[in-house]
Amino acid sequence: MARPTLASLLAPGAFDRPVDQVGADERAAKFTKRSIKTSAKEQGLKMVVAMTDLTTLEGKDSEGKVRQMCAKAVRPDPNDTSLPSVAAVCVYPALVRTAKHALKGSTVKVASVATSFPSGQIPLNERVKEVERAVADGADEIDMVINRRAFMQGDYETVFDEIAAVKGACGRAHLKTILETGELETYDNVRRASHIAMEAGSDFIKTSTGKVQPAATMPVTLVMLEAIRDHYLATGRAAGLKAAGGIRTAKLALHYLVMVKETLGDDWLTPDLFRFGASTLLNDVLMQLAKQRTGNYQSADYFTLD
Fold first, then answer.
1. Which CATH number among 3.90.76.10, 1.20.120.450, 3.20.20.70, 3.90.1150.10 corresponds to the domain 21-293?
2. Phi then psi dihedrals of residue 108, to 5 deg
3. Catalytic one among 140, 143, 284, 306?
4. Alpha-carbon distance 187 to 243, whole Å?
5. Quick check: is 46 catalytic?
6. Paired residues of 145 in beta bridges
7. Distances (CA, A) of 5 to 59, 202, 235
8. pTM score > 0.85 for this model?
9. With contact defined as beta carbons under 8 Å apart, do 223 and 187 qualify?
10. Which of 140, 242, 284, 306 is catalytic?
């Protein structure tokens, strides 16, 4: 397969074969029918923990709340020392230093939303400066939002150039590009935006900010996974995916893992290439793991709020 170029992605007819929406919906639904046995379920749940970006993105976020979240990120359940730490904590740029200090000595990364999250509606130079400040403060990963206005107007070159500029500002930090799929309207748009983001240098593509509904859905995520597969076959470069928004239960998270495995293979079943962006998912996973360990469900009150 020939490697796609920006010109080929922008050319008329580049995506003449539309995504089969009915087919995508049906394939995604089939992943929810897989039977997951007890030992595999426990392994899968621990994998979900390790793939989680524990997130707080509220206007009232405080240093104390972030420090508490970081403690939970390192030791999700103090009663179960077999559990891994989560992959990252995700905070606003103003709280990156607090998170970095709280996580010192751990394996947990600090991710920060930037580029005028969640709207992206400020001039590019200001978005780039915000990224540079977050990286200077210690962010290991940047979650940026694409310019949906430009994308929906067909100005794909601007979308590409802005992502590339932000990638340049990230320096050593990894870039996750948020498509905000709930605003892209069609699976064809999701596929095109995915390819543009990866061609512009994104290390991950991400479904949603979590501020717009619908957020992550299995069919949309499947379209993005298939775009990652096509990009990898064409370029040899493995991009990751972060599913964020609306994934609240352990059962649903396991369905996502099945979909990743059967679409991209075992190589993508790692925090380096797949993440969940979550604020409520982790507690449900911890409850399910406690049930696996003790035979009894614990109340949600036993776990700290994220």
1. 3.20.20.70
2. -75, 130
3. 143
4. 16
5. no
6. 178
7. 40, 15, 10
8. yes
9. yes
10. 242
Tokens representing residue 291 in the block: 């049930």
Cβ proximity of 49 and 83 under 8 Å: yes
Q: What backbone torsions phi and psi does residue 152 show, to the nearest 5 degrees?
A: -70, -20
SS3 141: strand
Q: What is the pLDDT along the chain (306 residues), one digit of tens a residue?
A: 344 556 666 555 555 678 999 999 999 999 998 877 777 899 999 999 999 999 999 999 999 999 999 999 999 999 899 999 999 999 999 999 999 999 999 999 999 999 989 888 899 999 999 999 999 999 999 999 999 999 999 999 999 999 999 999 999 999 999 999 999 999 999 999 999 999 999 999 999 998 888 888 999 999 999 999 999 999 999 999 999 998 999 999 999 999 999 999 999 999 999 999 988 899 999 999 988 877 666 655 555 655
* DSSP H helical ranges for the chain: 6-10, 21-30, 38-50, 63-74, 96-102, 124-136, 148-152, 156-170, 187-199, 218-235, 250-264, 281-294
Closest CA to 274 of 200, 224, 235: 224
Residue 53 is among the residues annotated as catalytic for this protein: no
The single residue of 46, 203, 206, 306 carrying the catalytic annotation is 206
Count the residues in the chain. Answer: 306
- The answer to whether residue 30 is catalytic is no
